[in-house]
Amino acid sequence: MSTPLPRPAHTARAQYTDWFIRLLAESVDGRLGGSVLVVMIAHDGTTEGEGVTRGNVAIADFVKGAVDPVVTVHHGHMPEIEILTPTTARGIWSMEDKLRWPEGSPIRSMHGYGHYHEEYKKVDGAWKISLNKLTRLRVDVEA
After folding, report:
1. Which pick of 67, 69, 96, 97 has the fewest CB atoms within 10 Å?
2. 7-138 CATH
3. Rounded to two decimals, what is the model's pTM?
4. 71-111: per-residue pLDDT in tens?
5. 130 contacts: CB under 8 Å, gap ≥ 6
6. Domain residue ranges in the chain
């Protein structure tokens, strides 16, 4: 029998799971919406990938713009969340995504595998992503 997560870690994980579900539910025909991203990310949050984007609205706009014409399937797995203080935490999530571009695009599809390395902070009683960094272990592209 596994040991239950400490309550704050369980709460952070449950909230993140809720975000994933809401994010996918907000999608239309597999296309990403933006309002849930704004709620998930701290006002001063940062995302790192091929560049750095700061601010929840800027991050939501960047992500939506990057994948707007793309149909996506996205999974987060096996979270490891460490509560650092009553208002800060960090976590790592295994991730997998599949993306399909519209007919005539230079890329037909992509299947990626990797991890989200994240930091969280509690804002007004709710956990928010303060830092998100995606590292990819493998990317299979079909042109």
Report:
1. 69
2. 3.10.450.50
3. 0.80
4. 888 888 888 989 999 999 999 999 999 999 999 999 999 99
5. 42, 44, 45, 46, 88, 119, 120, 121
6. 7-138
